[in-house]
Design goal:
Elements: E1 4-9, H1 16-24, E2 29-34, H2 36-41, H3 43-47, E3 55-58, E4 61-64, H4 66-76, H5 84-110, H6 112-122, H7 124-136, H8 149-164, H9 173-184, H10 186-192, H11 195-198
Parallel strand pairs: 1-2
Antiparallel strand pairs: 1-3, 3-4
Helix pairs in contact: 1-4, 1-8, 1-10, 5-6, 5-8
The structure holds S-[N-(ferrocenylmethyl)carbamoylmethyl]-glutathione.
Length: 208
């Protein structure tokens, strides 16, 4: 019986990384899918701390905010560095992932038609920072020698960037190798090839 529950819209969105992490960590979880009509009734929104999904439950612990959920799972499943110094670097990189995710979401939801080409043109100026940081760390992960929650978050975001622009990693060998290696981790491979994952759109407006 799964002790974790994710309540979210029927998209990958802000839950892509946590689902990949749960799958890779061999965890089970239950999904409660919220549709537009249900959400518009407002009672669920009123129960969310910031009026937004996802909600993540672990028994009687209820969390909102996707990055807080990632950190909680990282902490619980040993994907948050070996000490407080690594944890700080992992947080730093995750904040960088979120900055790029916010830029991506702004383009997807607010300016897809007018801003997509400029976003793709500028994307290397964001990706090169991750390339440089990861290339210095010989383990193939962002920080230390073990996978962290920030690696899952970066991986999920890179998969989305590849949907938008399949060649975007061609000039970034470290990131390209990272995506290849993450995709080949047996539990991630099974998960990303599952119907549960494939049937979900990346974003709520169907743009990608
Ligand atoms: C949207 O932004 O799917 N949550 C979203 N939107 C609804 O009333 N900082 C936090 C975090 O990291 C951000 C949460 C996030 O957890 S995710 C939310 O709750 C609201 O604000 C992106 C996504 N969007 C789909 C969407 C939501 C409302 C309109 C479009 C799904 C499709 C239609 C209805 C439900 Fe829809």
């Amino acid at each position: 019986m799964a002790s974790y529950t994710i309540t979210y819209f029927g998209v990958r969105g802000r839950c892509g990384a946590m689902r990949i992490m749960l799958a890779d960590q061999g965890q089970e979880w239950k999904e409660i899918v919220v549709n537009f009509d249900e959400w518009m009734k407002g009672d669920l929104k009123a129960r969310c701390v910031f009026g937004q999904l996802p909600i993540f439950e672990d028994g009687d612990l209820t969390l909102n905010q996707s990055n807080a959920i990632l950190r909680y799972l990282g902490c619980k499943h040993g994907a948050y560095g070996k000490d407080v110094r690594e944890a700080a670097l992992i947080d730093m990189m995750n904040d960088g992932v979120d900055d790029l995710r916010l830029k991506y979401l702004k383009m997807i939801y607010q300016e897809y038609e007018t801003g997509k080409a400029a976003y793709i043109k500028d994307l290397p100026n964001s990706l090169d920072k991750f390339e440089a940081f990861m290339a210095k760390n010989k383990s193939g992960f962002l920080v230390g020698d073990k996978i962290s929650y920030a690696d899952y978050n970066l991986f999920d975001l890179l998969l989305n960037q590849l949907e938008l622009c399949p060649t975007c990693l061609d000039i970034f060998p470290t990131l390209k190798g990272f995506v290849k290696k993450m995709s080949a981790r047996p539990k991630i491979k099974t998960f990303i090839n599952s119907d549960a994952h494939k049937k979900l759109q990346i974003n709520g407006n169907g743009k990608q």
